[in-house]
Write a structure and sequence with these properties.
This protein is α/β, with parallel strands linked by helices and 303 residues long. Helices cover 32% and strands 24% of the residues. The strands form 2 sheets. It has a 9-stranded mixed sheet, sandwiched between helices. The chain has a 4-stranded mixed sheet with strand order 3-2-6-7. The two termini are 24 Å apart.
Length: 303
């Protein structure tokens, strides 16, 4: 079982151009998208979060259930659902404005019990590691479960508009690295955070996957292995959810190889890493070809 922890929200995606273009609500949030993508790939997945009992929250929970994601670790509350208003660039890239004051995700509480014994991995990231007081609870979950030896994937997925003190966040990010088995981030995240892949590997992760948009993605491991794969060329509707799909595909692919342990990552062969990253690139390309965060099903990725 893979546990994905973090926020769910509603993306409001413009349907047309101009400041007053109609906005279409879509289910979203980085961790939420990762959980749904894992469920669609057929991975046994559990979502750990706090979701509103409002109408949007009900739709988010139903979306998890339809994808086959277990919701037993979801906390519920009457607080509103976070809203993210997307702004799409000419190349389909998305920027966001957030409405998160007093929202449900901010009141996530650390589960009193450790994650179930069947958990093989924990994935975290995005807004949930910024919005307090819930951010501290998610951070405590990362530290506790990593301390128990659980494989962890960290995707900072930086949303700079939500970060009041950039230097404090960068320091906090560095404090998470000893607890991350696999660090995945975009080249834009990397530039904003500062540092280098070599520095991050020295701080804790066994491997770092860097996504480079249309240029593909790269992995570097603590053992010195490096692999690059190209992106697949598709007609891009938008890039919403592409990075989250990569997270899911990496976890799914590594799980199929029995490699959901920090010790296994440096030992993976170049061929195994190439196949894993190529699978993630194919999955992300399908997501980019469709509007909103709409990751592929396993049948769409069959050889």
């Amino acid at each position: 079982m893979i546990v994905v922890a973090g926020e769910s929200l509603i993306d409001l995606v413009p349907q047309g151009t101009g400041a007053l273009a109609p906005l279409l609500p879509r289910l979203g949030g980085g961790p939420y998208n990762t959980a749904v993508a894992l469920g669609r790939l057929g991975a046994r997945t559990t979502f750990c979060s706090r979701i509103s009992t409002d109408g949007f929250g009900e739709a988010l929970v139903e979306g998890l259930r339809v994808a086959g994601v277990d919701t037993s670790l979801v906390q519920r509350g009457p607080e509103p659902t976070t809203l993210a208003v997307a702004a799409l660039g000419a190349d389909g890239s998305a920027g966001y404005g957030f409405y998160a004051q007093g929202s449900a995700v901010r009141l996530f509480a650390l589960p009193a019990a450790p994650l179930p014994s069947g958990a093989r991995a924990l994935a975290l990231g995005t807004c949930s590691l910024v919005l307090e007081p819930g951010a501290s609870a998610y951070e405590a979950l990362l530290r506790r479960e990593a301390g128990r030896g659980l494989f962890t994937l960290l995707d900072p997925n930086v949303r700079a508009g939500l970060i009041p003190d950039a230097d404090a966040y960068r320091a906090r990010f560095r404090s998470w690295l000893p607890y991350a088995s696999l660090l995945k981030l975009s080249q834009e995240d990397a530039a904003w955070l500062g540092g280098s892949v070599e520095e991050w590997l020295a701080a804790g992760p066994a491997a770092v996957v860097l996504t480079r948009g249309a240029e593909g993605m790269t992995v570097r491991t603590r053992g010195g292995r490096g692999v690059d794969v190209p992106a697949l060329r598709v007609e891009v509707a938008d890039t919403i959810g592409a990075g989250d799909t990569v997270n899911a595909a990496l976890l799914h692919g590594l799980g199929d190889r029995g490699a959901l342990s920090a010790g296994a990552l440096p030992a993976l062969s170049t061929a195994a890493w190439t196949d894993t990253l190529a699978f993630a690139a194919r999955a992300a390309a399908i997501t980019c070809s469709r509007p909103g965060a709409n990751p592929p099903y396993a049948t769409e990725l069959a050889p």
